[in-house]
């Protein structure tokens, strides 16, 4: 059976006391009612990572939302993968559509970021997904295939082994409009096929592919029941412990 994963992307939300309270609520609940079949990851803003690493407990793993492509140096305001690993991060989200859109991150840059993350021992959560316009033009499969080819499939088999893929249709992110379970399943199956072609059937079978885009406490069960959906990358609904815990417990 493939790994089942629920990851919360907090984006630029929460003060430090609020972040502490949220992690504390999650950790307490997961300690009292452990989930054995789901890996839980949270991705808080940079300044909170070191402290939350001490406070999150064993049931939660820590991710960053981004990293710089260089290891160290004169890059004012940036944070390297090595720094993230040194404060207890295990994952880093790369290629999120907001980074691509607002920070002009393209596949060439993402290639460097992936390499830096892997070299530092971080496991990448690589995001892909089409815009509404691309879906309406029916070029969404081609577009996602190209994103994977350009941004991800340059990795060696050994490197790719560490990757989690997140399919996040841009039109569903933060919009309240989620992909139907049919739309999610067909794209996840397609992504798995691309992995099989780029690597092999075994890699395709074991790579976790998460769905992201207005996934919430109400629709998670139906989405997670899809054969090729191995969990979710959750934005808005990860900011409230009750909602996030319901999503974590949405696997059949
Ligand atoms: C995201 O940005 O990764 C995301 C899935 O956001 P939301 O759940 O709020 O749509």
List the helices and strands and how they pair.
Elements: E1 5-9, H1 16-32, E2 39-43, H2 49-55, E3 60-64, H3 81-86, E4 91-94, H4 97-102, H5 107-119, E5 123-128, H6 132-136, H7 140-151, H8 157-160, E6 164-167, H9 181-198, H10 201-206, E7 209-211, H11 220-224, E8 231-234, H12 241-248
Parallel strand pairs: 1-2, 1-8, 2-3, 3-4, 4-5, 5-6, 6-7
Helix pairs in contact: 1-12, 7-9
Explain how this protein is built.
With 252 residues, the protein is of the alpha/beta class. It has one domain: Aldolase class I (TIM Barrel, Alpha-Beta Barrel). Helix content is 42%, strand content 14%. Strand 2 (39-43), helix 2 (49-55) and strand 3 form a beta-alpha-beta unit. Helix 7 packs across helix 9 (181-198). The chain is globular, with a radius of gyration of 17 Å. Bound molecules: phosphoenolpyruvate.
């Amino acid at each position: 059976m493939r790994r089942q994963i629920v990851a919360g992307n907090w984006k630029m939300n929460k003060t430090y006391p609020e972040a502490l309270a949220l992690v504390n609520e999650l950790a307490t609940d997961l300690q009292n009612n452990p989930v054995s079949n789901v890996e839980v990851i949270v991705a808080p803003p940079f300044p909170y990572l070191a402290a939350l690493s001490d406070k999150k407990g064993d049931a939660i793993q820590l991710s960053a939302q981004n990293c710089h492509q260089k290891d160290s140096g004169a890059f004012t305001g940036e944070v390297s993968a090595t720094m993230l690993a040194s404060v207890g991060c295990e994952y880093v989200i790369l290629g999120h559509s907001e980074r691509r859109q607002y920070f002009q991150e393209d596949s060439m840059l993402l290639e460097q970021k992936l390499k830096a993350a892997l070299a530092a021992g971080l496991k990448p959560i690589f995001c892909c997904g089409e815009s509404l316009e691309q879906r309406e033009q029916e070029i969404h499969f081609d577009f996602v295939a190209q994103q994977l080819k350009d941004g991800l499939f340059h990795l060696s088999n050994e490197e790719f082994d560490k990757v989690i893929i997140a399919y996040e249709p841009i039109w569903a992110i933060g919009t309240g409009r989620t992909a139907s379970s049919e739309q999610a399943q067909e794209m996840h199956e397609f992504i798995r096929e691309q992995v099989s072609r780029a690597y092999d059937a075994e890699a395709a079978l074991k790579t976790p592919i998460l769905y992201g885009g207005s996934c919430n406490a109400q629709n998670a069960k139906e989405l997670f029941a899809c054969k090729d959906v191995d969990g979710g990358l959750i934005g808005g609904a990860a900011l409230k412990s009750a909602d996030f815990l319901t999503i974590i417990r949405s696997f059949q």
